[in-house]
Amino acid sequence: MGNPSSENRTTDNPVTGNPLPENPTQLNTEGQNTEGQSTDHTIPFFSGEKDTAGRPPDGKGKKCTSAEDVQAYRELIRENIGYDILLTDYPYDRKLIDEIVELMVEVVSARREHIRVAGSDFPHELVKSRFLKLGMGHIQFVLSCLKENTTKVKNIKQYLLTVLFNAPATISNYYSSLVNHDMYGS
User: Fewest Cβ atoms closer than 10 Å to its Cβ: which of 14, 32, 109, 139?
Assistant: First the structure.
């Protein structure tokens, strides 16, 4: 056996996918039933067509929220939730509180028509409105829920988004059930 020659080796990228036959006009398509089959073998991602399965999520390609707007939302949210007081009351939860604030800023600043919360799509304006109405009590409620949760959370971002979104609708019932448990439970 001799040494293999390394001269004249091609380093071009090989053709991938379904290469076209040498003479495509000779294909016999008579009698083939293509009903219900896709004859388009192109990848639909970013093809520019509106109805393709691979189109970017809504909001992509739209004008982004400016850095000034994002900072203004961050300041407004911090003011609404009493950020400085929360940090004083929960000094060991600073990172968690900061993560909650950043998630709220991300959602409020988003340029999408819908936001997915708890597996359902809600109009962005509804989610934004709820998040901008959250106060210190809501964040305390969320922190309490996080501390009391004993189940494994696979997607913490979605969990937080859901708890924050539902906080105004569930906070009263949560505290009522705690009072009932403490007064009549033990």
Answer: 14
